[in-house]
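Subject line: Sequence and fold of a protein, written as structure tokens
Enclosed: The protein record, placed directly beneath this head.
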Amino acid sequence: MTGSGQPPFQVLERSRPFHGHVVDVRVDRIVSPDGRTGTREVVEHPGAVAALVIDQAGAVLLVDQWRHAIGGRLIEIPAGKYDVSGEYVEDALRRELAEELRVEGGTLTWLTTFYTTPGWSDEVVDLFLAEGVHPIDGDGPEADWEEAGMEVVRLSYEEALTLASARPPGDSKTLVALGLYGLRRAGLWSPDPSSEPPPDAPRRRAESRPSADERGSGPRPPVP
């Protein structure tokens, strides 16, 4: 790794001109050591949890859903943002699996935590592998009305990889998950146990998380 880990400029002024239901927009005015100035626009996001889900028969469960921002449908692994104050990461993930896939049980293994688009957002995704899930016995939780039309797709790993990558642009978290799982299946990669997040740490909502200054310049540590 190269570089000092310190920003190559100073922040002269910071404002948040937009406060949304999900994200805030931060604008920083910066200056370099030689006096040049500029601005950086950052979308602040509460973060999300996602999982590559494998059922008891070994099939991959994906969702086919409409994404308003791109004006089309995407094949994705199930995911959800941290929008319940104080909720533990595992609880947030199991809630999403119940709502989107109508499944429960199985084992959860943390794979990695990554920035989705570090060029303009601080959003991170905590990525898990959920193995051995089974359909919910009885009525599951009520799905969000915004997820109307979501369809569950059950495929082999090879079919899932082909479908997720065949019609670019694909979904980043899904491609990351399928790629890491493929390496794991081949015995070429496994998560570093020393980096595994603690099991009982809640994620915080956007309004309660520390500012960029309080977080420092380094990456946020994984937290589940």
